[in-house]
Amino acid sequence: MVDPYKSLYSSSGIKEIDLRKEMKNLLDGSRVEIAKGRVGLLRKMRRDSDGNLITCPCRDKITNEPDRDYFCQYCRGHGFYWDEHVINYFQDDTMYSREPGQNKEYDKAYFYIEHNVDITDDDYLIILKTDADGDVVSPKQRQKFFKVFSADAFRSDFGRIEYWRVRASEERRWSVWYAENR
Ligand SMILES: [Zn+2]
Questions:
Q1: Which among 124, 158, 178, 182 is least surrounded, fewest beta carbons within 10 Å?
Q2: Is the distance from CB of 47 to CB of 53 less than 8 angstroms?
Q3: How far, in Å, from the CA of 109 to the mean position of ligand 1?
């Protein structure tokens, strides 16, 4: 039996659950569910026409290391150029895990985002600090950085991208040298 609250879409006369709509309901809420999405930032790494990351001039000519001592204002220590976009995401807390027996340097998490977000491996998801009501504080404070290591598109039987499931690792070392609002 079809759940009357589920959205359907059809192609060639065959109906299936509209997971784009379901994802939007999960993030933004609907008449039968509360919004579970959070506002965050996607730090999208810039790429050249060959798909390679674009190197910032602050990288040392000999060691090829980005300049972290003087906190490059263009790349903020990545050593590559990037742009930031506001996105809505759902973080699956139940999947939050640590590597067993490891030195707790990385925490891994799953994120779910809408089909129309352009996300690739090596981009970063940034969690913003929120107040007691769950609203993002102003000005924005970047609280956690997650580096994407796998952005997987989930497709319908018709091949349409329905949503993205993103696996990412928290970059703990960031807090050591990432100065806020600079
Ligand atoms: Zn730089």
A1: 182
A2: yes
A3: 27
